[in-house]
Protein backbone atom coordinates (compact mmCIF):
# COMPACT_ATOMS: atom_id res chain seq x y z
CA UNK A 1 0.00 0.00 0.00
CA UNK A 2 2.76 2.43 1.01
CA UNK A 3 4.70 1.52 -2.14
CA UNK A 4 1.71 2.33 -4.35
CA UNK A 5 1.24 5.67 -2.58
CA UNK A 6 4.92 6.53 -3.09
CA UNK A 7 4.75 5.68 -6.79
CA UNK A 8 1.65 7.84 -7.17
CA UNK A 9 3.37 10.74 -5.39
CA UNK A 10 6.43 10.40 -7.62
CA UNK A 11 4.25 10.36 -10.73
CA UNK A 12 2.52 13.56 -9.60
CA UNK A 13 5.85 15.23 -8.88
CA UNK A 14 7.07 14.42 -12.36
CA UNK A 15 4.43 16.61 -13.98
CA UNK A 16 5.35 20.04 -12.60
CA UNK A 17 8.90 19.24 -11.50
CA UNK A 18 10.66 17.47 -14.37
CA UNK A 19 14.01 17.65 -12.59
CA UNK A 20 12.79 14.87 -10.28
CA UNK A 21 12.19 12.54 -13.20
CA UNK A 22 14.40 10.61 -15.55
CA UNK A 23 14.72 12.48 -18.86
CA UNK A 24 13.10 10.75 -21.82
CA UNK A 25 14.03 10.46 -25.47
CA UNK A 26 11.42 10.96 -28.19
CA UNK A 27 12.05 10.22 -31.85
CA UNK A 28 10.28 11.25 -35.04
CA UNK A 29 11.36 8.94 -37.87
CA UNK A 30 10.30 9.80 -41.41
CA UNK A 31 10.74 7.57 -44.46
CA UNK A 32 9.67 8.79 -47.89
CA UNK A 33 9.65 5.80 -50.23
CA UNK A 34 6.55 7.16 -51.93
CA UNK A 35 5.45 10.67 -52.93
CA UNK A 36 2.63 12.21 -54.93
CA UNK A 37 4.53 12.31 -58.21
CA UNK A 38 1.80 14.15 -60.13
CA UNK A 39 1.51 16.90 -57.55
CA UNK A 40 5.25 17.57 -57.50
CA UNK A 41 5.27 17.70 -61.29
CA UNK A 42 2.37 20.15 -61.54
CA UNK A 43 3.05 22.29 -58.47
CA UNK A 44 6.84 22.44 -58.53
CA UNK A 45 7.88 21.10 -61.92
CA UNK A 46 10.05 18.53 -60.14
CA UNK A 47 10.56 14.80 -60.59
CA UNK A 48 12.59 12.40 -58.47
CA UNK A 49 14.39 9.09 -58.96
CA UNK A 50 12.46 6.30 -57.23
CA UNK A 51 15.50 4.02 -57.24
CA UNK A 52 17.28 6.40 -54.86
CA UNK A 53 14.68 5.79 -52.14
CA UNK A 54 14.20 2.06 -52.69
CA UNK A 55 15.88 1.34 -49.36
CA UNK A 56 13.91 3.77 -47.21
CA UNK A 57 11.95 1.02 -45.46
CA UNK A 58 15.24 -0.65 -44.55
CA UNK A 59 16.58 2.68 -43.30
CA UNK A 60 13.65 3.02 -40.91
CA UNK A 61 14.30 -0.42 -39.47
CA UNK A 62 18.03 0.23 -39.23
CA UNK A 63 17.71 3.52 -37.37
CA UNK A 64 15.27 1.96 -34.90
CA UNK A 65 17.80 -0.81 -34.28
CA UNK A 66 20.42 1.84 -33.49
CA UNK A 67 18.20 3.97 -31.25
CA UNK A 68 16.66 1.05 -29.31
CA UNK A 69 13.85 3.21 -27.93
CA UNK A 70 10.54 2.01 -26.47
CA UNK A 71 7.92 1.88 -29.26
CA UNK A 72 5.70 4.33 -27.39
CA UNK A 73 8.39 7.01 -27.60
CA UNK A 74 8.87 6.67 -31.36
CA UNK A 75 6.63 8.11 -34.07
CA UNK A 76 7.16 6.69 -37.55
CA UNK A 77 5.74 8.44 -40.61
CA UNK A 78 6.12 7.08 -44.13
CA UNK A 79 4.58 7.34 -47.58
CA UNK A 80 1.06 8.75 -47.68
CA UNK A 81 1.08 9.19 -43.89
CA UNK A 82 4.03 11.59 -44.11
CA UNK A 83 2.41 14.65 -45.64
CA UNK A 84 3.68 18.16 -45.05
CA UNK A 85 0.99 18.66 -42.40
CA UNK A 86 1.61 15.26 -40.77
CA UNK A 87 5.33 15.92 -40.31
CA UNK A 88 4.97 19.38 -38.80
CA UNK A 89 2.04 18.28 -36.62
CA UNK A 90 4.08 15.35 -35.29
CA UNK A 91 6.90 17.72 -34.36
CA UNK A 92 4.44 19.97 -32.54
CA UNK A 93 2.84 17.05 -30.69
CA UNK A 94 6.23 15.91 -29.41
CA UNK A 95 7.06 19.53 -28.62
CA UNK A 96 3.93 19.69 -26.47
CA UNK A 97 5.01 16.82 -24.20
CA UNK A 98 8.78 17.20 -23.91
CA UNK A 99 10.21 18.56 -20.68
CA UNK A 100 13.51 20.35 -20.04
CA UNK A 101 16.33 17.84 -20.33
CA UNK A 102 14.42 15.44 -22.58
CA UNK A 103 15.90 14.49 -25.94
CA UNK A 104 14.31 14.91 -29.37
CA UNK A 105 15.61 12.94 -32.35
CA UNK A 106 14.49 13.86 -35.86
CA UNK A 107 15.43 11.35 -38.56
CA UNK A 108 14.62 11.63 -42.26
CA UNK A 109 15.28 9.26 -45.17
CA UNK A 110 14.02 10.25 -48.60
CA UNK A 111 14.50 12.97 -51.18
CA UNK A 112 15.91 16.36 -50.26
CA UNK A 113 16.00 19.42 -52.51
CA UNK A 114 16.70 23.14 -52.73
CA UNK A 115 14.14 25.71 -53.82
CA UNK A 116 14.24 29.48 -54.36
CA UNK A 117 13.96 31.43 -51.10
CA UNK A 118 10.43 32.77 -51.54
CA UNK A 119 10.17 34.77 -48.31
CA UNK A 120 13.71 36.19 -48.67
CA UNK A 121 14.71 35.21 -45.15
CA UNK A 122 17.98 33.69 -46.29
CA UNK A 123 20.35 36.55 -45.61
CA UNK A 124 23.17 35.21 -47.72
CA UNK A 125 21.50 32.73 -50.01
CA UNK A 126 18.77 32.55 -52.60
CA UNK A 127 17.77 29.02 -51.68
CA UNK A 128 15.95 27.13 -48.94
CA UNK A 129 16.65 23.50 -48.11
CA UNK A 130 13.57 21.28 -48.17
CA UNK A 131 12.44 17.76 -47.34
CA UNK A 132 10.25 16.11 -49.96
CA UNK A 133 7.17 15.05 -48.00
CA UNK A 134 4.37 13.07 -49.62
CA UNK A 135 2.41 16.04 -50.94
CA UNK A 136 4.59 19.15 -50.70
CA UNK A 137 7.94 20.44 -49.49
CA UNK A 138 8.74 20.88 -45.81
CA UNK A 139 10.94 23.99 -45.81
CA UNK A 140 13.80 24.51 -43.38
CA UNK A 141 12.07 27.73 -42.26
CA UNK A 142 9.13 25.70 -40.97
CA UNK A 143 11.34 23.31 -39.04
CA UNK A 144 13.18 26.25 -37.50
CA UNK A 145 9.96 27.89 -36.25
CA UNK A 146 8.92 24.73 -34.41
CA UNK A 147 12.38 24.19 -32.95
CA UNK A 148 12.41 27.72 -31.53
CA UNK A 149 8.91 27.33 -30.11
CA UNK A 150 9.20 23.93 -28.44
CA UNK A 151 12.75 22.63 -28.28
CA UNK A 152 14.92 25.32 -26.67
CA UNK A 153 15.27 23.39 -23.39
CA UNK A 154 15.69 19.92 -24.83
CA UNK A 155 18.66 18.04 -26.24
CA UNK A 156 18.19 17.67 -30.00
CA UNK A 157 19.70 15.51 -32.71
CA UNK A 158 18.91 15.60 -36.44
CA UNK A 159 19.91 12.93 -38.95
CA UNK A 160 19.07 13.81 -42.56
CA UNK A 161 19.81 11.01 -45.03
CA UNK A 162 18.94 12.83 -48.23
CA UNK A 163 20.34 15.07 -50.96
CA UNK A 164 21.06 18.74 -50.22
CA UNK A 165 21.13 18.10 -46.47
CA UNK A 166 24.04 20.21 -45.28
CA UNK A 167 21.89 22.69 -43.37
CA UNK A 168 18.27 21.61 -43.07
CA UNK A 169 17.91 23.92 -40.09
CA UNK A 170 18.72 27.58 -39.46
CA UNK A 171 21.05 29.58 -37.26
CA UNK A 172 20.14 32.74 -35.41
CA UNK A 173 23.58 34.18 -36.19
CA UNK A 174 24.57 32.21 -39.27
CA UNK A 175 22.48 31.09 -42.21
CA UNK A 176 24.59 28.43 -43.88
CA UNK A 177 22.70 27.78 -47.09
CA UNK A 178 23.84 26.82 -50.58
CA UNK A 179 25.09 29.78 -52.58
CA UNK A 180 25.08 30.03 -56.39
CA UNK A 181 28.53 30.49 -57.91
CA UNK A 182 27.66 33.93 -59.27
CA UNK A 183 27.12 35.23 -55.71
CA UNK A 184 30.44 34.08 -54.28
CA UNK A 185 31.87 37.58 -54.36
CA UNK A 186 29.33 38.58 -51.74
CA UNK A 187 31.32 39.47 -48.61
CA UNK A 188 28.71 38.10 -46.23
CA UNK A 189 28.61 34.84 -48.11
CA UNK A 190 32.38 34.49 -47.89
CA UNK A 191 32.16 34.95 -44.13
CA UNK A 192 29.49 32.27 -43.79
CA UNK A 193 31.29 29.96 -46.20
CA UNK A 194 34.36 30.32 -44.01
CA UNK A 195 32.31 29.15 -41.02
CA UNK A 196 31.08 26.12 -42.94
CA UNK A 197 34.59 25.29 -44.09
CA UNK A 198 35.90 25.67 -40.55
CA UNK A 199 33.37 23.22 -39.16
CA UNK A 200 34.03 20.72 -41.91
CA UNK A 201 37.78 21.10 -41.45
CA UNK A 202 37.33 20.37 -37.77
CA UNK A 203 35.51 17.20 -38.75
CA UNK A 204 38.28 16.30 -41.21
CA UNK A 205 40.86 16.57 -38.43
CA UNK A 206 38.61 15.34 -35.62
CA UNK A 207 39.56 18.41 -33.60
CA UNK A 208 36.44 20.33 -32.67
CA UNK A 209 36.03 23.94 -31.61
CA UNK A 210 33.20 25.76 -29.89
CA UNK A 211 29.62 25.35 -31.12
CA UNK A 212 27.88 28.15 -32.98
CA UNK A 213 25.51 30.11 -30.67
CA UNK A 214 21.82 29.34 -31.11
CA UNK A 215 18.64 29.41 -29.02
CA UNK A 216 18.36 25.61 -29.15
CA UNK A 217 20.99 22.89 -28.94
CA UNK A 218 21.45 20.59 -31.92
CA UNK A 219 23.77 17.80 -32.96
CA UNK A 220 23.36 17.59 -36.72
CA UNK A 221 24.26 14.80 -39.16
CA UNK A 222 23.63 15.57 -42.84
CA UNK A 223 24.29 13.08 -45.60
CA UNK A 224 25.90 15.61 -47.91
CA UNK A 225 26.46 19.31 -48.56
CA UNK A 226 23.58 21.57 -49.57
CA UNK A 227 24.71 21.62 -53.19
CA UNK A 228 25.38 17.87 -53.50
CA UNK A 229 23.47 14.66 -54.11
CA UNK A 230 23.40 11.73 -51.69
CA UNK A 231 23.74 8.03 -52.42
CA UNK A 232 20.65 5.89 -51.91
CA UNK A 233 19.52 2.51 -53.28
CA UNK A 234 17.90 -0.76 -52.18
CA UNK A 235 20.55 -1.13 -49.47
CA UNK A 236 19.44 2.19 -47.97
CA UNK A 237 20.95 5.64 -47.65
CA UNK A 238 24.71 5.85 -47.24
CA UNK A 239 24.51 7.83 -44.00
CA UNK A 240 22.19 5.31 -42.33
CA UNK A 241 24.18 2.34 -43.61
CA UNK A 242 27.36 3.87 -42.22
CA UNK A 243 25.77 4.57 -38.84
CA UNK A 244 24.45 1.01 -38.64
CA UNK A 245 27.77 -0.57 -39.62
CA UNK A 246 29.72 1.38 -37.00
CA UNK A 247 27.06 0.72 -34.36
CA UNK A 248 26.99 -3.04 -35.02
CA UNK A 249 30.78 -3.38 -34.96
CA UNK A 250 31.09 -1.30 -31.80
CA UNK A 251 28.28 -3.18 -30.08
CA UNK A 252 29.63 -6.61 -31.00
CA UNK A 253 33.10 -5.73 -29.72
CA UNK A 254 31.86 -4.10 -26.53
CA UNK A 255 33.06 -0.65 -27.60
CA UNK A 256 29.77 1.21 -28.03
CA UNK A 257 29.86 2.51 -24.45
CA UNK A 258 33.08 4.36 -25.32
CA UNK A 259 31.54 6.24 -28.24
CA UNK A 260 30.45 9.86 -28.25
CA UNK A 261 28.97 11.98 -31.03
CA UNK A 262 32.35 13.26 -32.17
CA UNK A 263 33.92 9.83 -32.34
CA UNK A 264 30.89 8.56 -34.23
CA UNK A 265 30.98 11.50 -36.65
CA UNK A 266 34.66 10.98 -37.41
CA UNK A 267 34.17 7.30 -38.18
CA UNK A 268 31.05 7.95 -40.27
CA UNK A 269 33.01 10.60 -42.18
CA UNK A 270 35.77 8.10 -42.98
CA UNK A 271 33.33 5.40 -44.03
CA UNK A 272 31.29 7.68 -46.29
CA UNK A 273 34.42 9.17 -47.83
CA UNK A 274 35.08 5.79 -49.43
CA UNK A 275 32.02 6.48 -51.59
CA UNK A 276 33.07 10.11 -52.14
CA UNK A 277 30.24 11.48 -50.07
CA UNK A 278 31.00 14.13 -47.45
CA UNK A 279 29.25 13.89 -44.09
CA UNK A 280 28.05 17.22 -42.73
CA UNK A 281 28.36 17.40 -38.95
CA UNK A 282 27.49 20.48 -36.89
CA UNK A 283 27.37 21.27 -33.19
CA UNK A 284 24.93 24.10 -32.60
CA UNK A 285 23.89 25.89 -29.44
CA UNK A 286 25.41 26.71 -26.07
CA UNK A 287 26.69 23.62 -24.27
CA UNK A 288 26.58 21.39 -27.33
CA UNK A 289 30.35 20.91 -27.11
CA UNK A 290 29.68 19.05 -23.85
CA UNK A 291 26.71 17.20 -25.28
CA UNK A 292 28.93 16.01 -28.13
CA UNK A 293 31.03 14.08 -25.60
CA UNK A 294 28.07 12.00 -24.47
CA UNK A 295 27.09 8.56 -25.70
CA UNK A 296 25.14 8.98 -28.97
CA UNK A 297 21.34 8.91 -28.89
CA UNK A 298 21.34 8.23 -25.17
CA UNK A 299 19.70 10.51 -22.63
From TrEMBL:
InterPro entries: Caspase-like_dom_sf, Metacaspase, Pept_C14_caspase
GO cellular component annotations of the record: cytoplasm
UniProtKB keywords: Signal
SUPFAM superfamilies linked: Caspase-like (SSF52129)
Signal sequence interval, chain numbering: 1-21
One annotated GO biological process: proteolysis
Peptidase C14 caspase domain location: 27-276
Gene3D superfamilies assigned: 3.40.50.1460
Pfam families xref list: Peptidase_C14
GO MF term (any one): cysteine-type endopeptidase activity
PANTHER family listed in its UniProt record: METACASPASE-1, METACASPASE-4
Protein name: Caspase family protein
Amino acid sequence: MMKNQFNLLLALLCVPFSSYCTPKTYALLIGMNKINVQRYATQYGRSYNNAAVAGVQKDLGDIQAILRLPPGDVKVLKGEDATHEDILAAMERIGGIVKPGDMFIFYYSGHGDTIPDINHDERNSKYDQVLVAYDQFVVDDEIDVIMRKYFTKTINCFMMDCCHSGTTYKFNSLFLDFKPVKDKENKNFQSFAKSVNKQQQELANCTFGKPIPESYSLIYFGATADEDLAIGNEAGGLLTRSLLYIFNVALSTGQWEQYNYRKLACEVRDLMAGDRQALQYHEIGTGTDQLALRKPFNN
